[in-house]
Structures are given as C-alpha cells and as structure tokens.
C-alpha cells in the first residue's frame, strides 16, 4: 500500500512540475499564429535586431530594442512585465536568447516568432520602414 501511495505522489508531483514548466516557458509561434496574437490588446511587440536591420523593414508597431546592445536590460525595463511581450529577430537565434533574458528579468508572458522576420517575409507578410 505504501508503494502505491508513494508512486501516486511521485506521479502527481511530476505532472504538476510539467505543468509549471509549460506555463513558465517561452511560446514559439509560427507566422500565422504570431500574426493573430500581435493584434491582441496590450501586446508589446519588440524587434531585437540592430537599428540598421530594423530600418530595413519591421513589423508594424514594433519597438526596436537591440539585444546585442549594452543597454538591453535598461531598455526592456520600460516594458510592463505583466503584459504579453512578443519578440522577433532575423531568424530566431537572438530572439530566443532575448526571450530567455526577459524570462530571467521576470517577464511572465513571452512569445517568439519561429524563424524570425525572414520567415515572416517568406510568407509575404507586411513590414514597414
């Protein structure tokens, strides 16, 4: 009987820890789902590329906070940690690192664009200069 109870406890503990990890993880969305989500209220859209890359074309309403810049942490401090933050870069590498950093800084709801703006552009989605 003790073994059954212990097994059940470990099973429940494992299940709840998996749920917590899912809730705490960064969501990576394909272009279609990302495009839908950026229209939701209170979304903070952040392009983490360099200012030069940003000026070549970005998703409308995005703010540019260069992940590679020394002041990244200071600039993201102006964002609301309780509101959704959606990030993207050129192909997904920098935005994955930026998402991890945002998580470390206490942001709760982080979404990354799978394949970055390169993927966005390959699907002929609109950008602005």
Can you tell me about this structure?
The chain is globular, with a radius of gyration of 18 Å. A 5-stranded parallel sheet has the order 1-5-4-2-3. The chain has helices at residues 2-24, 31-37, 51-55, 72-76, 93-104, 116-122; strands at 27-29, 44-47, 63-64, 85-88, 110-113. The model is unreliable at 5-13 and 15-23 (pLDDT under 50). Strand 2 (44-47), helix 3 and strand 3 form a beta-alpha-beta unit. The longest helix is centred in the N-terminal third of the chain and has 23 residues, at 2-24. The protein is 46% helix and 13% strand. It has 6 helices and 5 strands; from the N terminus they run αβαβαβαβαβα. The protein is of the alpha/beta class and 129 residues long. Keywords: Signal. Residues 1-23 form the signal peptide. This is Rhodanese-like domain-containing protein. InterPro entries: Rhodanese-like_dom, Rhodanese-like_dom_sf, Thiosulfate_ST/Rhodanese-like.
Put the structure in a nutshell:
This is Rhodanese-like domain-containing protein. With 129 residues, the protein is α/β, with parallel strands linked by helices.
Low-confidence stretches: 5-13, 15-23
**Helix proportion:** 40-55%
Instruction: Walk across the major sheet and give the strand order.
Output: 1-5-4-2-3
Radius of gyration: 18 Å
Question: Structural class, from secondary structure content?
Answer: alpha/beta
Overall body shape: globular
Q: How much strand content do the residues show?
A: 5-15%
Number of helices: 6
Pfam families: Rhodanese
Domain Rhodanese: 39-129
InterPro entries: Rhodanese-like_dom, Rhodanese-like_dom_sf, Thiosulfate_ST/Rhodanese-like
Signal peptide: 1-23
């Amino acid at each position: 009987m003790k073994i059954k109870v212990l097994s059940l406890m470990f099973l429940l503990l494992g299940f709840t820890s998996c749920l917590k990890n899912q809730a705490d993880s960064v969501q990576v969305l394909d272009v279609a789902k990302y495009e839908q989500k950026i229209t939701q209220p209170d979304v903070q859209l952040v392009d983490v590329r360099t200012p030069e890359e940003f000026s070549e074309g970005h998703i409308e309403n995005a703010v540019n906070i260069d992940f590679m810049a020394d002041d990244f942490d200071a600039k993201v401090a102006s964002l609301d940690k309780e509101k959704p933050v959606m990030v993207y870069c050129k192909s997904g590498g920098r935005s994955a690192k930026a998402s991890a950093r945002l998580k470390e800084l206490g942001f709760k709801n982080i979404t990354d664009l799978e394949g970055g703006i390169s993927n966005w552009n390959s699907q002929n989605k609109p950008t602005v200069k």
